[in-house]
Amino acid sequence: MFHKATKDLAKQLAPDGDLLPVSSLIDQDHFRPLYLVRRKPKRSWMTHHRYYKTGVRLSDILVPGQDSRNLDVQDSHTITVKDCSDGRVEWTIKMPEDFVSMEVTGAASTYQVKSIKMKTARVSPAALEILPKERKINMDHSFIKDLRKHRENLYVINEAVQALEETTLYKANTMEGNIRNDICVHFSLKGTRGSKSVIVIPKDCVLAFRIKPLIIQSESWGISHHPNEETFVADGVTAESDYFPDGGMEGLQSDVEKECAELSQLSTDLRAKFLKSIIAVIINSDLLQELKLKLEEAFEDADKCELKSENPDLEDLLNNVQDSEGSTHLYLVGPVLYTLHALGELTEDQLLRLAQSVEKQIVSKQLELVRENASEIQHHTAQ
Question: Where in this chain does the record put each Gasdermin pore forming domain (predicted)?
């Protein structure tokens, strides 16, 4: 729910997409101005790059200079976003057939309230221009050495959108159903199902942020205004630059088969357990985010991460990506994370349709239709 709220806010405040939503309420402190973030390589099916916390501030990797003052972070004016939605849908289906008569009625309603007062905290561009002249990069810092070894790009947060006061987000869904069946015996069934989600966002919580690429050459460094600039440009082209060229449908299928090869080797029973968890997160975006964050943490530091969840839908999957002693099987975590990131690119409506297709076991047929359509489009384009 938190991630959906921050995504909606970022889109409302900056439709051009340069304002990045914070995905986790727990990690929001690591996305304040002057913190550093990493960027993972972008797949062809990703609409946006993904940025990850480092827990490291810009000052942590600089050599102390004569002027080791902290950069000022300035607050801007207040911004308020109000969003209240209320909807209800009703339907009736009658199915008479000879001596059997059945009537199905149903209704679904949703109610959502979101009102957030925010402020923008930003670092002065002039201050960021002056700092590289006063302090050099510590190239012996273990963090810099590791980044350079793996050729990863680094970014500094120069602006953050924060909650001005404690805020409560509220969402409720209700579904009602009634089945009346007349055969020789009259009977009817009626039921109501509801769900409520409430999340409290603390004061000063970071909701979204903007970044600038950090450029490092020997001990000198600087801030770039070009979003695709590489951090260690003097070392040559990074692996990210040509990570995954768009090879169309065939290229995408090849990439999926490569990344998910370990899952195809699992037993039928284990694959069924994994699929059960995947279906659960498809129909519950909050669950999807929870599982993704847990596995990302495990992938980054398998020794310190304990994979547990109170949700029974995730229990089978989490139990089977680690052994009896609690050691994480990274060869399984990787493919599952790949799948979750792909699902994260879909809207809620698309996820719901996918869940229905999986339940009806028609995904293979739909994929075949997509291949045929893609082939026809490619053929017409070539003419």
Answer: 1-229
Element (H or E) spanning 213, and its range? strand 206-217
- CB within 8 Å of 329: residues ≥ 6 apart: 321, 322, 323
Cα–Cα dist 53/33, whole Å: 12
Q: Judging by beta carbons within 10 Å of its beta carbon (0-12, 13-18, 19+), is residue 203 exposed, middle or buried?
A: exposed
Spatial contact of 228 and 174, defined as CB atoms under 8 Å apart: no
Q: How far apart are CA 241 and CA 233, in angstroms?
A: 11
Q: What is the DSSP-derived secondary structure letter of residue 322?
A: B
* Residues contacting residue 217 through CB under 8 Å, at least 6 positions apart: 233, 234
Tens of pLDDT, residue by residue over 84-96, are: 555 555 545 555 5
Q: 3-state class of 207 per DSSP?
A: strand
**d(Cα 142, Cα 158) in Å, to the nearest integer?**
23
Euclidean distance between CA atoms 118 and 115, whole angstroms: 10
Three-class SS state of 118: strand
- CA 242, 244, 250, 254 torsion: positive or negative? positive
CA angle 160, 224, 216 (to 5 degrees): 110
H or E element, residue 9: helix 2-13
Domain ranges of the chain: 2-235, 248-382
CA distances from 221 to 58, 193, 213, 253 (A): 11, 57, 11, 40
Half-sphere exposure of 270 (CA within 13 A, CB side): 11
The whole-angstrom separation of Cα 170 and Cα 1 is 9
Nearest 10 degrees: Cα torsion 29, 5, 14, 206: -10
How far is it, in rounded angstroms, from Cα 259 to Cα 338? 7
Global pTM reads: 0.64
Among 205, 208, 320, 212, CA closest to 271: 320
Q: Residue 60: helix, strand or coil by DSSP?
A: helix
